[in-house]
Amino acid sequence: MIDSHCHLDHTPLHENLSEVINRSKEIGITKLLTICTTLASFENIKEIVKKDKMIYGTYGIHPHETVSNKVDKQTIVRSVNENEKIIGIGETGLDFFYNYSDREKQISSFKAHIEASIELKKPIIIHSRDAEKETFEILSSYKNNNLKILMHCFTGSLEFSKKLQALDAFFSASGIITFKNSTDLQNTFKSIPLEKLLIETDSPFLAPMPMRGKKNEPSFIRYTLEKLSNLQETTVEKMSKITTDNFNKLFNL
Which domain CATH number covers 193? Predict the structure, then answer.
């Protein structure tokens, strides 16, 4: 198993990192990808990836944070090239649900991340909420650049997933697929090809059933894995191998 998206620099994971790592290993997790959201976050991540060989990191500015964290393509490229354990770009993207940051700033930042991803030949980890049209239009404009797309915590429509599949995107399932009111999303994940699926916790957020209401952590990923296996009508063991292989293929590990 691999948790393809967690935030180990956030409370309470950061303060209890050794225990979090041990519990992850106990359930069979082999890699953790801790995700960058701000410039300050990246400084913490550079130290966190040194804690254990199973931990890798990313560089990126979350769409909510683009109002106060401005980066350009070359800054991203330089920061990633300085550390071999930084294996992805993001999380970046568009969030028009909360609009914590100006839309134009979000779009500009998203494009800088995409262009850095293309130059570095590393996957881009995308957050998209209430912005399906704009997200797809921007990604489509780069479709001839061998962009490696990972839709993190995918909650989009079936139609959006089909469009993204045409761009060869990967899709990561979070604990949301275990929620009782997520029937539409569950049906979408039934339709995504096995070779395009990953799993994540997005911890410490979005704890899956039956842990909902608690602070999430990587070891809870087994509940999302079980649900995805059920939706795809396969075994937990097979789904674990499939999602692990997909992660390693996407991130060239």
Answer: 3.20.20.140
**Virtual torsion, Cα 106, 59, 70, 134, nearest 10 deg:** -10
**Cα–Cα dist 212/241, whole Å:** 26
Token pair 């490229």 in the structure block, residue: 77
Q: What is the mean pLDDT of residues 228-234?
A: 98
pLDDT digits (tens, 9 = 90+) for 41-86: 999 999 999 999 999 999 999 999 998 999 999 999 999 999 999 9
Q: Which phi and psi (to 5°) does residue 219 adopt?
A: -65, -15
- List alpha helices for 124-220, DSSP H: 132-140, 158-165, 183-191
The total number of structural domains in the chain stands at 1
Range of the domain at 202: 2-250
Indicate yes or no: pTM above 0.90.
yes
Q: What angle do CA 194, 219, 183 make, to 5 degrees?
A: 50
CA 226 to chain centre: 19
Q: Which two tokens stand for residue 183?
A: 């029937």
Backbone angles phi, psi at 239, to 5 degrees: -65, -35
Burial call 12-50: b when 16+ CB within 10 Å, e when fewer: ebbeebeebbeebeeeebebbbbbbbbbebbebbbebbe
CB 139 within 8 A of CB 167: yes
Q: Which residues, other chains included, contact 87 with Cβ-Cβ below 8 Å and sequence gap of 6+? A: 33, 56, 57, 58, 122, 123, 251, 252, 253
Distance of CA 196 to the CA centre of its chain: 13
